[in-house]
């Protein structure tokens, strides 16, 4: 069962990427993002994609340029996540056959991203919009739009966000911080998956 949870591994090192990716998949999280402001992110993506690309959607976050999109695709990544709604990046991602999740916060950004071909919308930082804001925007978005709450979300408030219309979540420091071992990540991932499954019953 694939869950609408994206693990954000900001700061992950290439030599630990495969072990962390492995425990995430075992816990039930198969969408994994390495932000491009991590140490040697393309090498981490390359290693994870080579080892687990058949079983997981692996890609990059903090993608800001067309050059970034090209480099991620060349490394085997299949998902592009951005903090902003740069329509050129969205269009380039889709042209390269990659999934596109741009960051949005306003109705204008939401609709611009969808018109450019985004697969889903990353509500970021979601604590600024809040569940009530998402509920209001969801009322006017196309019914099939997948919105991912990112920033200030976790096991304690999954149910509230889902009730407001969130389709999924991006989890950063709640699942990984530099220095966490694979077993640290496994414990957090297990808790997050259990809470997600309970909230989506």
UniProtKB/TrEMBL annotation:
<dbReference type="Pfam" id="PF01081">
    <property type="entry name" value="Aldolase"/>
</dbReference>
<comment type="similarity">
    <text>Belongs to the KHG/KDPG aldolase family.</text>
</comment>
<dbReference type="InterPro" id="IPR013785">
    <property type="entry name" value="Aldolase_TIM"/>
</dbReference>
<dbReference type="GO" id="GO:0016829">
    <property type="term" value="F:lyase activity"/>
</dbReference>
<comment type="pathway">
    <text>Carbohydrate acid metabolism.</text>
</comment>
<dbReference type="InterPro" id="IPR000887">
    <property type="entry name" value="Aldlse_KDPG_KHG"/>
</dbReference>
<protein>
    <submittedName>
        <fullName>2-keto-3-deoxy-phosphogalactonate aldolase</fullName>
    </submittedName>
</protein>
<keyword id="KW-0119">Carbohydrate metabolism</keyword>
<keyword id="KW-0456">Lyase</keyword>
<comment type="subunit">
    <text>Homotrimer.</text>
</comment>
